[in-house]
Amino acid sequence: MRRVWVLAGVIGLGLLAQGARADFAAGVWAYERGDYRAAVAEWSSLAESGDAEGQFFLGLMYAEGKGVPLDYAEAARLYRLAAEQGFALAQYNLGVSFANGLGVPQDHTEAARLYRLAADQGFPQAQTSLAVMYDIGQGVAQDYAEAARLYRLAADQGDAGAQNNLALMYDDGKGVPQDYAEAARLYRLAADQGNAEAQKNLSRLYLLGWGALQDPIAAHMWLNIAGANGSSIAPALRDAIAATMTPTDISEAQRRARECLASAYTRCD
Questions:
Q1: Model pLDDT for residues 126-145, shown as the tens digit of each residue
Q2: What is the full DSSP assignment across 81-139?
Q3: Which one of 124, 144, 190, 236 has the fewest beta carbons within 10 angstroms of its own beta carbon?
Q4: Are 187 and 211 in contact (CB under 8 A)?
């Protein structure tokens, strides 16, 4: 059985600080130099004035426990204030809070509603998270076609998890016509971003010759890489393939894996 890769992470300060507008410069600079109390002071002033970005950033501080005590309920309250003003990142993070019961009662239906608000603004993480809910029928009625549509929106923006999950749908023929070549293309896009699930899934297509030329060396290579990226099952699969390969082929697969990783996925063929 395949496991759907679920995006459930809160968007954090480390990702967003670089994109903060000029009004946030003092808070951003304070955060980046590790002066979290100063960052909280800057963003608290903005939050109290009703500024949605200030509310969101302050909520992140409570969610991370930086400069303030860790308080998921306060984080959710601040996310809600920003979400009600249409701020997509806050809608997404509040959705994650409801999906995981962080500071609010767990409610998958409410999580799906909030993900949709952010997804409709083009936010790829929300599109992927909502797609997962349609894929597994959580908080919404199961709908593979809608899951595929949402995965595609996020995949086209470069979201590796969406690329992997859309590939799985082409692999299985769920919500889209079965198409191993398209599955292989999408797995490769995600694999080249370091997604271990996609690397493992791509290796299977190389092993079986589905959607790509049959190539046990490439299959072994991608399992080496998936294992290096934290896939717990990849080493066992790699060893099973190795039992059918010559020592020369195994050495070549290992060499190609090292080159692929060292090149940051620019030399993996």
A1: 999 999 999 999 999 999 99
A2: HHHTTT-HHHHHHHHHHHHHTSSS---HHHHHHHHHHHHTTT-HHHHHHHHHHHHHTSS
A3: 236
A4: no
Structure token digits, residue 186: 């999408």
Instruction: Write the CA distances from 216 to 179, 198, 255, integer angstroms.
Output: 21, 17, 14
Rg (CA), the chain: 21
Cβ neighbours of 36 (radius 10 Å)? 18
Dihedrals φ, ψ of 233, to 5°? -90, -20
Give the C-alpha separation, 162 to 198, whole Å: 10
State pLDDT tens for residues 71-81: 999 999 999 99
H-helix or E-strand spanning residue 207: helix 196-208
Q: Whole-angstrom Cα distance, residue 19 to residue 49? A: 21
Amino acid symbol at 156 = D
The pLDDT, as a whole number, for residue 79 is 97
* Chain position carrying tokens 């599955």: 183
Cβ distance 108 to 96 under 8 Å?
no
- pTM score, whole prediction: 0.88
Phi-psi region of 214 (alpha: psi -120 to 50; beta: other; left: phi over 0): beta
